[in-house]
Amino acid sequence: MKYRGNTSIRYDKKSFTIQVVDGQGEELNANLFGLRRDKTWVLDAMAVDRIRMRNRVNFDVWNAMSRVPYDTELDRRNGTVGLFVELFINGEYHGLYCFTDKVNRKLLDLKKPRVDDKGQPIIRGVLYKGREWSSATRLRGYETDTTWQKKWNGWELAYPEDYPCESEFSISL
Over pLDDT 70: what percentage of the chain? Predict the structure, then answer.
């Protein structure tokens, strides 16, 4: 278990990432609370959400109206699922949290890159994460400079992490 969040870490009530491991400390896929099998989970402190339900309700509505355009093991879902829990750490009460899965390669059923006969990667899906507030992450505009880095305009290429390149940030309309 470790603290989670770039901004939320400053709040008194901390969010956590939980990684499931076996008795030898090896990562373990587990189905916690019947949500889905994975090795990492989120305990969202909901520190700035006074009614403690904004994110959960928003993702539940999103899941009801949006699906990825291809079949996945998780019914084409592209948002988190979760439930409310009361958190105790070493017997000390920490309050109400939202226990959720994560939007990751496994949820979106993104295939790992392959390499063609010339040694070039064949990218078969990408996943971005907003790392900072910018015009681009607020969907108000973006810088047109291209990049071969993992980060661009406040976005970070989360997957595939091994092949950052300009094409991952290209917009096709």
Answer: 92
